[in-house]
């Protein structure tokens, strides 16, 4: 499922309410989140720094990050 970037909060909440909530009562549930973004011009250094720091604080999988 690809979430609409302009409505991701609402769309993710629907997944939680309609799918995850039903599964978690009967099993152990693991949720994985993948975020991809592309910029032809590349991302400004301050954006790379902010996103990288926030991803580290949120404990994203080691090795995730920006590619050249």
The end-to-end span amounts to 26 Å
Mean pLDDT: 90
Order of helices and strands: HH
Classify the secondary structure makeup into a structural class: mainly alpha
Principal-axis shape: elongated
Strand content: under 5%
C-alpha Rg (nearest Å): 15 Å
Largest sheet: none
Count of beta strands = 0
Query: Share of helix among residues?
Result: 40-55%
Spans with pLDDT under 50 lasting ≥5 residues?
none
State the helix count.
2
What labels describe this entry?
68 residues; mainly alpha; 44% helix
Structure in words:
- It contains two helices and no strands.
- It has helices at residues 8-24, 45-57.
- It is elongated.
- With 68 residues, the protein is mainly α.
- It starts with 7 loop residues before the first helix and ends in an 11-residue tail after the last helix.
- Helix content is 44%, strand content 0%.
Give a brief description.
This protein is mainly α and 68 residues long. It has helices at residues 8-24, 45-57.
Strand and helix map with partners:
Layout: H1 8-24, H2 45-57
């Amino acid at each position: 499922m690809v979430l609409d970037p302009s409505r991701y909060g609402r769309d993710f909440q629907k997944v939680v309410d309609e799918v995850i909530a039903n599964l978690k009562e009967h099993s152990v549930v693991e949720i994985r989140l993948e975020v991809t973004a592309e910029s032809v011009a590349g991302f400004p250094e301050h954006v790379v720094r902010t996103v990288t720091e926030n991803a580290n604080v949120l404990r994203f999988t080691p090795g995730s990050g920006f590619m050249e």
